[in-house]
Amino acid sequence: MATETHSATGNGLADAVGVEGHDMATAGPGMPQLDFSTWGNQIFWLLVALVVIYFVLSRVALPRIAAVLAERQGTITNDIARAEDLKRQASEAEAAYEQALKDARAEAQAISQRTRDDIKAQVAEATKEADARIAEKSAEADKAVAEIRASAMGNVEAVAKDTAEALVSALGGSADTAAISKAVDNRMKG
Amino acid sequence: MATEAHGAESGGLVFHPMDQFIVKPLFGDGPVGMFTLTNATLWLALTVLAVAAIMVLGTSRRAIVPTRSQSVGELAYGFVYKMVEDVTGKDGVKYFPYIMTLFMFVVLANFLGLLPMSFATTSHFAVTVILAMAVFLTVTILGFIKNGTAFLGLFWVSSAPLALRPVLAVIELISYFVRPVSHSIRLAGNVMAGHAVIKVFAGFAALAAISPLSIVAISAMYGLEVMVAFIQAYVFTILTCVYLKDALHPGH
């Protein structure tokens, strides 16, 4: 296969060279680039093409693109300037906000301090009042306790006399109220 | 087309890599005269249309936020404008439309030449020699107009020792006159070589055994040629800018 290929290649090349040799005799040099009979034609049309391209570019395309680029540059510059302006405004607004926040915080602190003082004063006053009322109440209560104790003593005496009388009569004796009362009194004193 | 011209007498393999460059009339079979409409004419016209499509149609909406086609035009504009400004300086900017014309012509002719069945106008020395000579003559004349005889200072290397200067002047002079030759042959040679190599690979594709390899090789070459198409246009343009800079500021 390989040898076949090689021989075929060889033949092909030989043929090509041979053909080219024949051509050279009939149609000039092997390189069409060096066939000077076509140069006039190519140069003429080349110059036409270049002139057309030059006029299309210099009259229409390049000014247009330059204008578009300049306009874009202008737009970008404007936008950047506006963005900077907005940024400055934003930072000013932020500073104002910070200031307001600081003021508000200070005011809040003052208010809470004042409120705390107020409440402390009120609490102190209320405590004093409550102390006074408690003292009054406890004095009242002491008096009531003394009264109750006194009345309770009287009650005890009466109950003792009654009980003694009832006991005496229950034991079959005749109750002498005065004697019983005297005895009970003695007992209670003792 | 190649087989038509030469017949199928060679059997398996047919190599006519240069046939794609033959200039022939579009209509009829007569000789190629000065004003004959040829395949070269057709593809030059298509190049003009492509330039107009990109630079005029694409930018017709003048959008602040560009569309894709407008971006291509603006990119080309910015690319060449920056190149001119960077290389030649501020005072070279007024020659920007001429350089833009050269760049757009060369780059689009190169790319159109890559279309299958197309004709690569920039593969012809007739085209590139005219472009290079136009640049050479313009730059030389402009150099003398702008600087008078001071333009000859370009060849007199004042930073070199005095004894060396005449020798350097001769070398500089030769290199100056070789410029249009290298300028034109570089472009046409690159384009022609790439197209011819692709055609040679295509000729091998006739053999079933190597046709897959051949197709891979054609694809790879095509990719390379796409790069070459742009790079050669870029090189051609930037060299033009360098020559223009020499004309405007002839000092070393």
Automatic annotation (TrEMBL), chain A:
Coiled coil region boundaries: 76-114
Membrane topology: Single-pass membrane protein
Regions crossing the membrane: 43-62
InterPro entries named in the record: ATP_synth_b/b'su_bac/chlpt (IPR002146), ATP_synthase_B_chain (IPR050059)
CDD domains: ATP-synt_Fo_b
One CC-aspect GO term: plasma membrane
Reported function: F(1)F(0) ATP synthase produces ATP from ADP in the presence of a proton or sodium gradient. F-type ATPases consist of two structural domains, F(1) containing the extramembraneous catalytic core and F(0) containing the membrane proton channel, linked together by a central stalk and a peripheral stalk. During catalysis, ATP synthesis in the catalytic domain of F(1) is coupled via a rotary mechanism of the central stalk subunits to proton translocation.
HAMAP family associated with the record: ATP_synth_b_bprime (MF_01398)
Family: Belongs to the ATPase B chain family.
The protein's name in its UniProt record: ATP synthase subunit b
TrEMBL record, chain B:
Cited Gene3D superfamilies: ATP synthase, F0 complex, subunit A (1.20.120.220)
Membrane-crossing residue ranges in chain numbering: 40-58, 95-119, 125-145, 152-178, 198-219, 226-245
The entry's keywords: ATP synthesis, Cell membrane, CF(0), Hydrogen ion transport, Ion transport, Membrane, Transmembrane, Transmembrane helix, Transport
Protein's UniProt keywords contain Metal-binding: no
Coiled coil, from the record: none
InterPro entries according to UniProt: ATP_synth_F0_asu, ATP_synth_F0_asu_AS, ATP_synth_F0_asu_bact/mt, F0_ATP_A_sf
Membrane topology, as annotated: Multi-pass membrane protein
PANTHER family on file: ATP SYNTHASE SUBUNIT A
Role description: Key component of the proton channel; it plays a direct role in the translocation of protons across the membrane.
Name of the protein in its database record: ATP synthase subunit a
